Amino acid sequence: MARRSAVAWAAFGPLLWGCALGLQGGMLYPQESRSRERKELDGLWSFRADFSDNRRRGFEEQWYRRPLRESGPTLDMPVPSSFNDISQDWRLRHFVGWVWYEREVILPERWTQDLHTRVVLRIGSAHSYAIVWVNGVDTLEHEGGYLPFEADISNLVQVRLTAQTSLGPVSDFYSLPVGIRTVAVTESQFLINGKPFYFHGVNKHEDADIRGKGFDWPLLVKDFNLLRWLGANAFRTSHYPYAEEVLQMCDRHGIVVIDECPGVGLALPQFFNNVSLHHHMRVMEEVVRRDKNHPAVVMWSVANEPASHLESAGYYLKMVIAHTKALDPSRPVTFVSNSNYAADKGAPYVDVICLNSYYSWYHDYGHLELIQLQLATQFENWYKKYQKPIIQSEYGAETIAGFHQDPPLMFTEEYQKSLLEQYHLGLDQKRRKYVVGELIWNFADFMTEQSLTRVLGNKKGIFTRQRQPKSAAFLLRERYWKIANETRYPHSVAKSQCLENSPFT
Ligand code: GCB
């Protein structure tokens, strides 16, 4: 099997003043037509800022000659975006100097083998001085940002090749990154590669200002930078499967995922009927079919807070869980419960018990002093009945960034912090016994329907909807890094993202 790949290596750097001297024809916006095809290079690029004193190490060491990852650490950088705004590293926020972007591109065979096809590389804009290498060859330079520039790169990417395997000529190619790991559950542990794993993470939503729910690379990279800042090692895709690019990022960064299907709002008895059940099973088929190749996914969640105290829900959950296990015998299956241990009819069928509880929020408002006792009782009751590992899959408090009060009152940053502190004391009592994880509700504020309990959406985020930290984020950060340092595998090293320590090892 042979494949021709074109690698575009681009460097974007500081402003040099320049001006155009001549006008040789126009420059058309790239548009598809019967004779023209277009391939977007937007998306995730590899990135490195040259922090060397003279900012010229990249040129001295000729970083453009080999894949960027071979000359040192790289970061993920979405294109288009501004690197200063995406990162949590203050040095990048203020960086002036050369930065290097790299993207490996596989071109359709048609483009590379038909010598009559003209292949043009166009950069929409790069600020402020750009040098572009293609397959290590200096191909394009441009001064000043804002405006497009392009070059004919046909001679750099075209060559006559015949792809051949022992089975004959190859007509289809697909590359799939692979990760190998095992997942297992005992009566008190969640094991990854045979070692106890503790989920210290978040619940998310695919949500942000303006875009609402929709995939966006800059937002995703920002969120991953924040997860890293936080020291989180896991999240649940509450309450639906997320974009596939999200899972690809998790695979690459070693973030562990509980993949949830959109089985949310199953709150009424009439929902547990055969039509729903069959639809639910079909949706699980779609989720498993789509996501089964992601090593980051370690457990399926078939529902969030169904009315699992109902008999009919018991049968329904039993069937959906059995179906999911048959589809994928390699992963544990759960649903997320907010029922009482004595009443829940679905728990007998799950591998891990996931519990949502909002002590001192939806009950006993303001009584933070009750949390530890309530939490201990919750854990002990469930464990005694089921002897299965437990994850605290939601807990939290509405918090309006900038509201302060001491002693703490509900909706203030101090109250969120104090509530979290009490939960953490309770979690620590059971953490080394059978509680195998904690996921804060929520990573960031998100929009909801209006209601009496929502102030311009759900404000239980530890980050605002604009991804700025509330006080609780710093508390959680200290905790998660502490747990990460206690539990990380000593010998593994995350090489690619190494501006700072990584919790993902
Ligand atoms: C829950 C739900 C979640 C809500 C959250 C809340 O139990 O699972 O979807 O957003 O509580 O803040 O009320």
Automatic annotation (TrEMBL):
GO terms for molecular function: beta-glucuronidase activity; carbohydrate binding; signaling receptor binding. Residues 1-22 form the signal peptide. The keyword Signal applies. It is found in: Lysosome. Pfam families: Glyco_hydro_2_C, Glyco_hydro_2_N. GO terms for biological process: carbohydrate metabolic process; glucuronoside catabolic process. Belongs to the glycosyl hydrolase 2 family. This is GUSB isoform 5.
